[in-house]
Amino acid sequence: MTIRSPLRLGPVRRFTRNLLCPVDLLGRPLLLKYTRNPAEAREEIRGHARLARHYRVPALHADLRVPGGHLLAYERLPGGTDQGLLVDLLNADEPSSDLRIYLDRLTAAYREVMLATAWPTDPAHVVRKLYWDRATPGGRLDTYYADRDFLFADGLIDIPVFRLGAYALNINGRRHHLDWAVTLRRLRAHFATAEQVWAALTQGDPTDVNLAHPLAWFDYDTAGMNSIPGEFANFLWYTSALGGWLVPTYNPTAFADHPATFTHIPANTPEIRRADVDHSTSTIHIGYAPRLSAPRRAAVTAYWNQLVRPIADRLWPGTDTAHLLRPYLAMRILGVHNLADLAPEDRLVLLARLAEAMSPAFDPTTYFCPLESPCPAP
Q1: Helix%, strand%, coil% for the chain, nearest 5
Q2: Which of 70, 139, 255, 319 could lock 261 by a disulfide, CB 3.0 to 4.6 Å apart?
């Protein structure tokens, strides 16, 4: 007679500072999440409760205090290797019918909840973790960049970032200007104002590994009333840059169960075609070709056309969407990875992208490539 254990443990995975482990307990599939930070655990529990009233989320079965932190036991949704997440629909050569149906459902759910819960909100009462907290004294902008100078791109453009203000940037044939110190000051000042922002109830960190397939939402420590432009900037930047290129490159363990992600990194990695300095005219010349796989382009296009555009038309009629997105996009570029720690080629592209985002000519409809046709080469 074979006696089956009432408890079966799967592989433990690390996501940022948290640990996840699939468990079968008495035949019930669970996902255990170990969180060291008590404050983050409390935010996770509150965020799950807020979200559950409007979005599909796995049930939270238990919250246990354990040595060193909290253990949360969630209902485990079906999944497996290269299955169960939005990233798996994006890891393909062409958009599938499943992806298009998924995007229709995703944007429809967001439109309904955003329009039902949108409200001008004091910044003190929005979720602050991803933007405001990172811009405050001692936040990530300070931790990463305060009094730290580094080269634009070692071996390619050996100019310190604090001297960029003295140079013109010619990026893909267009003239730009980026003053590093001024940019940091502008971002700190923007997120220090008390001006109300339009906020709505969302999960707050809509990445392709936080969105399940079939549609559901994971990870709740940023769930609550989130800035709507911040929500938009997060999804657009993650889908067009972080998820297919930077995160799997610098945090590969996050995709251990979704190895097809690594196959598609080349299809989402920009190609550098020129990087040099003309000292006689104080001009930095950069040429790069943006790359975005067809499924990711389809996701950005659907999100823009079916969510960003109708919400912006309703809440900010006649307002330039670029003006709304710019500070949030800049914070996503600067506040996720420390640019000084990246490979010179990646840092060069991100600084070029930052200069384009901060430009008065910034146009989100071309910046994120939300078009079915390929992004134009320079």
Answers
A1: 45, 20, 35
A2: 255
